[in-house]
# Entry
Amino acid sequence: MNLKELKEGDSAILASINVGEDIKKSLLLNGVCIGSLIEKNYSPSFAKLCNISIRGKMISIRNHDAINIEVVKFSEK
Amino acid sequence: MKQLALIGKPNSGKSSLFNKLTGLNQKIGNYSGVTVEKKSGIFEGVKIIDLPGLKSLWVDSLDEQISLREILDYAETNSPLLFVANGVQLADSLLLFSEIADLQIPMILVINFKDELKKSQLVLDKEKIKNHLGCEVVLMNSKNGEGLDELKALIRENKAQIPHTFRRSQFEKMDKNGFENIYLKTIKDHQNKFTNAQYQLLEADFSQRQLLVSKITNEVLKEDPTKLDILASSKKVDKILLHPIWGMITFLLVMLVVFQSVFTLAGIPMDWIDQLFAWMSEKANANISTQWLASLVSDGVLAGLGGVLIFIPQIAILFILLGILENTGYLSRISYISDNFLQKFGLSGKSVIPLMSSWACAIPAIMSTRMIEDNRERMAVILASPLMTCSARLPVYTILIAVMFPENGDGFINAKGLMLFFLYLLGLVATLVVAWFINKRSKFISAAAWTLELPMYRMPNWKNVFYNAYAKTKSFVVSAGKIIFLISVALWVLASFSPKSEEFIDQQYESYISTIDQNQEVINRESIAIEYSYAGYLGKLIEPAIQPLGYDWKIGIALITSFAAREVFVGTLSTIYSIGSEDESTITERLRNETNLKTGQKRYNLATSISLLLFYVFAMQCMSTLAIVRKETGKWKYALYQFIAMLILAYCAALLAYNIF
# Structure
């Protein structure tokens, strides 16, 4: 499943990040990389943004990037 | 002089700590990018430098590049750094700390937001973290100064130490100079285009750093941070403020309250200032025996200054309200809810902060575009943001709206407030359309990367909110006041003296009296005298160009002088009209009573007032903004294009409005 499909309140481990180098770098500098544990936050559809929290930080990613980030739900591991 | 720079991730409380240390009052806000250039102050003979926050040494934006250059200089000179970490995001802050530690710069680590750590039930073992990192650690709360004495003592005793390295030795294993040749070289070279190879290096390096940092945080924090949700209350609030309906309603209400407050709350103190200047003018005329001096003081200096100082309450209220929005973290939410909409104009949510700052002043707004990583977006915001309604337009709008709507109106929502709201909206629409056009035509390359950090909601630091509002208002008054004082005196000279004789002016007045009919309002002799003064000739010189817009030579003088700064328009009109009038009525009354000598009708009728308002919505009448555009773009041609394009836009809009109404 991808990051966009994750439900609000669910935690997941990032499995792959198939986005451009610039966005990968931006995510990495915010601590978002393969293996990171994230939690999906409230993400209203009108904004077309995906909200996650990671290590006490809340970060928004555009939906078109979020669908290219594969995750594994934490409870499934 | 010894120096010490404050460095850390954005929104870690550096500026707040800087203010506590130096007693200066830096601009502080609860969003990334508040400090866009380095600021300095003195603490007991040590120069303290506040650098823009940076996420990593792998910098993106211009403000981060300033910090990187400074850090690399510090590494060469072995000068100390004060690293400010956000206590509730310690792992995140320590990632950056690890990168700087590898540069072998002496450091003191300040772990800020002690109060929030406590609230989150996190207990930090200070001695353990000190041992892990190999440098002094201070736990503090920069908002109330807790821990400040300990930090001051460490600075006094010069206790900054070179911390243990994190990854440096790994690079040196590969090659003796591997850290410089591989790691630092890539950091310095990557800024133009980020390649896959560079990403590989960054990813490998960051994965290792994250492991090392996690190991430290797991040991020094007594509770597992992953089991605690320190963001719980912010998440709850976000469910309302980011909601498609409630969020939008809140946003519109907040904006409406801001604009209505600017008018209604400021009304009473504005009346006081108005009455004070009228009283001072009356006293000057009564007590200064030399007629020309009394006229200079009353009609020149006091009229000009009073015309601008009256707007202090409005500007202060605007700055206080914007300060509260910044401090609470709501501005970032505005970025969030506006991102999708702004994308239609080639912008992103990150443009909102510079654009909203333009409502206060385009200068800091243009400077704050340095935090926008995308060059194309940044240029579009720089060139379009002066169309947003800045505080300098407020005096012009207030006067003209007051002339258009003589009745005060009852209630919180009235015609004046709605008109002001419309003008702000028009400025916003013009900004977006121009930004869209620039984006379409721009040759700058757009970087697709976009992520946004939403800070935790915090109560505003009231002292900082009020002090920032005071500092900005003072800056407005001082910078505008100097120009206005000089222009007021110069205008008084130009308007009080004429190349024609007194007899000639008497003849012109008699000639005017003999031509008017009974229904026309009779004007006094002084109005005719101004027409034949040096100022009158200057205004008449440009009158043919502005007549199609409904303006006369008096407005022409004000347009010329306000090319320096928009707010000068009001001071100029105050000076011109108080010279031509014997009563001490307010500038608004004077404008309302002004008569068109040719038609006998009111000069400031609906068509002229709207035409003037639109001219000021679109015209770039601010020399300081042009200077900052040159500074930020590096070329005069952008400032020149901007000036000409906005002037053409203003002229066309004013011409259209005058002919329609």
Notes: Helices of chain A lie at 21-29, 63-66. DSSP finds two helices and five strands in chain A.
